[in-house]
């Protein structure tokens, strides 16, 4: 989740940025374990595939404005496991998701009760690799109530939990999220605590949780800071994601950060762990991730003869530099 | 309720499942048919791949013939174990209470992901109250997901048996538009009609005007309801194949 903020204050046109050289990471594979593709265009899918993203996780979140009825939730969850998954497959990217009631909308208790009733219908579906993203936003009593209920649900279903940590009062919110998860009997190794920063990472790792970092301009981590974190803490139980959504964000955050890490002397093994392997290890505890299904090969139950749209194959490429559209 | 011998079919599908999944999974599956416990029935349907795996099933030529005898034109060749498991589960559902039965299965459609929808649409020819699913089938044809369309269009006897003429024509047009293998549609020539021929030829003109091609099946279908010479002239006018 992102929040709005003035962009002008952060823009420094006099500094000429170094260009992202995609060839630096050629041949590397990436797993983006938090990206809201529903809010992105097909151009993003193509760019991600070109940059080596072979699989991703789309956590259920709020859509920028609150939903007013149960059917909107149902259709949203359906779209994550249905249309969005199919759309992604057409670009050769394996699409997983986590399903849950996000913290903001947990505050509408009448609706939250109804959402809780339909969650079991979705969390057991194929390719659902966790309950998420859940946790605290304002840290209200209602948020806590539905966080706790969903932790129980995850435990019962044997699914990892993807925890959103708040923008405001972050450190305390992160601690509370972990305390409550432990109280509900979850193994920290099955809980991915997201949106960490320099202030939260140490405790998250010390307590045995996974520490995810969101590379997101202005409001979350920048990737130069991320390089420093890996230098300091290594790569065990650390993963990075883009959390790209409808805000100013970057679906290439993971490959770009890999390129920056490579440039600044982080070892190939460490880069591979934080941009690919660790996310798989953490979320594969769901039993729903099969690495052999990655890349452009389609899963065993899906036919693709020929290359045309709507066949479960891949989208034809168009030459965007041409003035002719045919 | 059913237009075929449901008990014979359940028995045969049970045997085929037996050949393709482990005994304990089969034992689990056989106990999941109580659709009056909606939540448990839904959960069993959804978690099927976790139980059965997703390998392609093996089925003998004799079994294929037997299936076709019990339920004409019903074909499971090339299906995966989870798809057959789900369809089998639907045949185990209690269909006595019509409105409950329709509701339980309709909710699965409403929350279905791609593989679930493939299984659900594949099951249409086996469901009780066959006339009740025509609208659902027409809705499925509006899908833009290739595998879901193929589950309805390919080797599925339901559409030609139950769809209205308009919905049928939409199915054929959608198949042509999405470049499906038209030859796998059951009842293609039995349900052919003059209105469809008109739509197909309009489509051919539109494609021709755009400098695009059309599949040869289009001409074969249109021919039945078109006066001699018209198609040749159209091909010539639009420089079509």
TrEMBL record, chain A:
<keyword id="KW-0378">Hydrolase</keyword>
<dbReference type="InterPro" id="IPR032466">
    <property type="entry name" value="Metal_Hydrolase"/>
</dbReference>
<dbReference type="GO" id="GO:0016787">
    <property type="term" value="F:hydrolase activity"/>
</dbReference>
<protein>
    <submittedName>
        <fullName>TatD family hydrolase</fullName>
    </submittedName>
</protein>
<dbReference type="InterPro" id="IPR012022">
    <property type="entry name" value="UCP005295"/>
</dbReference>
<dbReference type="InterPro" id="IPR001130">
    <property type="entry name" value="TatD-like"/>
</dbReference>
<dbReference type="Pfam" id="PF01026">
    <property type="entry name" value="TatD_DNase"/>
</dbReference>
UniProtKB/TrEMBL annotation, chain B:
<protein>
    <submittedName>
        <fullName>EboA domain-containing protein</fullName>
    </submittedName>
</protein>
<dbReference type="InterPro" id="IPR047715">
    <property type="entry name" value="EboA_dom"/>
</dbReference>
